[in-house]
Amino acid sequence: MDTNSKLSNNTAVILVSHGSTLPYAEEVFVEIKEKFIKKSELATEIGYMKVSEPTIAGAVEILKEEVDDLDKIIALPVFLAPGIHTNIDIPTLLGLEPLEVDPRCPDGNYPPEHYLSIADDVDFDGEIQLLGSIGPRDELLNIINKRINEALEDSKLDSDAKTGILLVTHGSRLNYNKEFATALFEKFEKTCDLPSSFGFMELCGPSIPESINKLVDENDIERLIVVPVFIAPGMHTTHDIPHILGFLEAHEHEHHHDHDHGHDHSHDLTPVEFDGEILYPEPIKADDILIDILVDMVNEAL
């Protein structure tokens, strides 16, 4: 594919991410962007909702400088499941109509300090096409199976040890994340010969401890592989979930989260009680399979 011929369409892509106070997510998204550009041959920039740079508005400015006569931007939220961010925050930050009424602020009048109030407006006269989230695609199962195999390579137990699999996602007060996790697990369960289940870190059930206890009680598990179904490492994958799994001492995780989503919340991080081996592989990160998914999503929109 010829890069110049692709760019002659005057189209560019923004890979939209949440943003994080930790460096891991930015490092992963830089790698995702580099791989995406190489695969798609489209001008591409990351746009962070908040905290990190460039912002979504900043990403638009970068692309305007990079692509002559830019007349279309495809905004691709690199989120696994739809939710408040994909349906309300990202459209608003792009200057588009939100896809639903915001349950945090139904009248749309956000407090002055809210990140939707303080964000710069997007300055772009062309078309902005917002795509949906990734969703429970079959290709994600290939990444999950890859992480399971990587974890087994680090196991100290024999290959015939009774093994269980737990898929873990964040959880949400809305149904979107649970619907995504349920659909993905139903696909995974059909392809997996091992006892398996899924659990949520917070906000909805079943919780990680509930799922582990049920899985262990019903199957006499000796080895448990807990797969974090997250795009990038962050506070949840490096602190919250490891604490629940008993990898961190209590004093290592004494903090209160304020994600500025319109709510503050403290996590119930009670460690699980399991005497067997727990293996905890990396999240999805910039896996080549993820890049293929993102490129396919954009190509379908072109």
Describe the structure.
With 302 residues, the chain is an alpha/beta fold. It folds into two domains: 3-133, Rossmann fold; 139-279, Rossmann fold. The protein is 38% helix and 16% strand. It is built from ten helices and ten strands. It has helices at residues 3-7, 23-40, 56-66, 84-93, 115-118, 139-153, 176-191, 208-219, 235-244, 288-301, and strands at residues 11-17, 43-48, 72-77, 127-130, 163-169, 196-200, 223-228, 257-258, 264-265, 277-279. The strands form three sheets. A four-stranded parallel beta sheet has the order 2-1-3-4, sandwiched between helices. Strands 6-5-7-10 form a four-stranded parallel beta sheet, with helices on both faces. Helix 2 (23-40) packs across helix 10. The longest helix has 18 residues, at 23-40. It is globular, with a radius of gyration of 20 Å. Mean pLDDT is 90; it is low at 1-8 and 250-266.
SSE topology string? HEHEHEHHEHEHEHEHEEEH
User: How much is the radius of gyration in Å?
Assistant: 20 Å
- Calculate the terminal CA-CA distance, rounded to whole Å: 15 Å
Query: How big a fraction of the residues is strand?
Result: 15-25%
**Largest sheet entry:** 4 strands, parallel
Which fold name fills CATH's third level, the topology of the largest domain? Answer: Rossmann fold
Question: What's the number of domains?
Answer: 2
Outline: globular
Low-pLDDT runs of 5+ residues are 1-8, 250-266
Q: In what order do the strands lie side by side in the largest sheet?
A: 2-1-3-4
Named at the architecture level, the CATH assignment of the largest domain is 3-Layer(aba) Sandwich
Helix count equals: 10
Backbone structural class: alpha/beta
The counted number of beta strands is 10
Question: Can you give the helix content as a percent range?
Answer: 25-40%
CATH top level assignment of the largest domain: Alpha Beta
Mean pLDDT: 90
